[in-house]
Here is the input.
Amino acid sequence: MSDMSINDFTLAIITTDKNMTSSGGCPIFYASDDDDMQNKAMLMAKCVDGVVHEIAKETLIIVKH
Here is the structure.
């Protein structure tokens, strides 16, 4: 059995898609444009020592591996 911890989860979603909602408890941060999205993602990833992954053109996630 593997040990699940905060290191195994998506910590944040950053998107320019104002229609995106979350039902899983992961916080969503809305950005005004692509530059704002990239900036928010990099700052947040640094704060939590996470990694940014692009899952769609308008959506990035921060994951702690």
